[in-house]
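May I ask for a single protein's sequence together with how it folds?
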Amino acid sequence: MSDLKELTELTLASARDGLRNKDFTAVELTEAHITAVEEARVLNCFVKETPDKALEMAKASDERIAKGEARDLDGLPIGMKDLFCTDGIETTAGSHILEGFVPQYESTVSQNLWNDGAVLLGKLNLDEFAMGSSNETSFFGNVINPWRRAGDDTPLVPGGSSGGSSSSVAARIALAATGTDTGGSIRQPAAFTGIVGMKPTYGRCSRWGVVAFASSLDQAGPMARTVRDVAIMLKSMASFDPKDSTSVDCAVPDYEKALTGDIKGLKIGIPKEYRVDGMPTEIEKLWQQGIEWLHAAGAKTVDVSLPHTKYALPAYYIVAPAEASSNLARYDGVKFGLREEGDDIQAMYENTRGSGFGAEVKRRVLIGTYVLSAGYYDAYYLKAQQVRTCIAENFRKVFTECDAILTPTTPSAAFGAGEKDNDPLSMYLNDVFTVTGNLAGLPGISIPSGLSSEGLPLGLQVLGKPFDEEQVLRIAGVIEDAAGFDARPQNWWSAK
C-alpha cells in the first residue's frame, strides 16, 4: 500500500491528530484524496470536483498549522452535498433546472466548516432536490454503492438522497461529508454503505443557503466513518443563525467530549410498533443483538409504545410533497438556472419546468399540489399535520419513560440499481423507520452494526430527546465499540 493510500485510510480524528503532530501536511492529505476521487469516478459520487480549490485551502491550513494556529478541522478534506450553496461554485441540487447556477453566497453550514479549516474536495451527487431513497433520480446519473453482494457484481444503490455523501465516505475518497435528512436521507444511506450518519435536532444546524425540499423537515447533518468523526463534524456544522427563522439559539456542546462510553443506568426504549410485518429475520436478530450490547454496557431496555407510528409514512408523504410543491414553485426560468423559451410567459414557465424537473420531482410536486388544493386541503394536508402532532406527542410521552430509543435503521440492506424503479411505494417504504424522527424533529443516528446474509452492511438507529445529541452520540459510541464493525467494501472501482 502506498503512502497516498494510507492517508485515505485515516479517520477524520486520526487525520486531524496526524496533521497536528506534523506526520504529514494538509497538502499531502488533500492530494491523496484528490487522487482517490479521480480513481473512483465510476461511483459517480461527485457532480463537481474542486481540486484547485482544495489545494488552495490545504495550503492555507498548512500555514496556520505551522504557526500553531490550527483550527478544529484544519486541513481535513471533505465532500459537500450539492444541496448546500457554495459561493462561486456551481450548485445544482442534482437537477437539470439548476444546471449552471453559481451562487454568490455561502450556506451557513458550509461557511462554518470553512471557518474551521475544512478543505472542499467537491460537490456530491444526490437524488434530485433530495427526493429519493436510492440516488437514482439525479440528473447527473446514479451514484453507485462501493459495496457488492457476496459473489455478485450487480451494482447496488447507496441509499438516498445523500448517496454521493455516503458512497464517498465508504469508498475512502472523502474523510467525511455533509448530508441532509428530510425523511431519513442521512441515516438510510449511512446504513446502506456501512458508515455513521446523524440527523441532528431540527433547528440545530442552519438551513440558510440549503436548497429547500420540505422546510419543516429538512435538517443538515454529518456523515463519517466513526461516531467520533460525526461528533467532530457536528460541532463545526451546528450554530445559531439569525438568517434562519427555524434556527434555535442554544449553546453548541463539544460533542466529542460526550463520548465517555458510560451509559450505565440509562433506559433505552424498544418500540413494539417497529416490529413491522414482513421484517427480515436478520434485521430482527441485529436489533436483538443491539439490545444485548446495551445490557452488557449497563443500560436497561424498556418496552414502549408509539401508537401512531403506522401513520407516519403516509403523513410524511403528504406533508413533504406539499411543502415541496410550494418550495419548487420558484424555479420558473426567469432569474437563474434553466430557461426554455415559449410563445408567452406561461408557456415559458411550463416548458422550463417540464424539461427541467425529473419524473420523481414531478410526481411529488403533483401530489403536493393536489393535497393543498381546494376541497382536499382539510382531508389530506390538515389531517396529516394532526397526525404529525400525535406522533410528536407519542415521543414526548415515551421520553418520560426512557432516555433514548433503539430501532433498526432500514428494513433491508442495499438493493440493486433499478430493482424498484417501477414501484415508488416500495421505494418509499425504505424510510419506514426514519421518518418519525423528522416528523417529531428529533436527533437520530445510524451506526453500522453487522452484515446481512449477502455480506452487506446493516445499521441500528438511536433516536433521542430534542437537543440531546450528546446522549445519542454516547449511546451510539457504545454500540459502535460493541459491534466492532470493521468490514469494508472491496476496492473494485480503482483496481488496475
The radius of gyration is 21 Å. The CA atoms of residues 122 and 381 lie 38 Å apart.
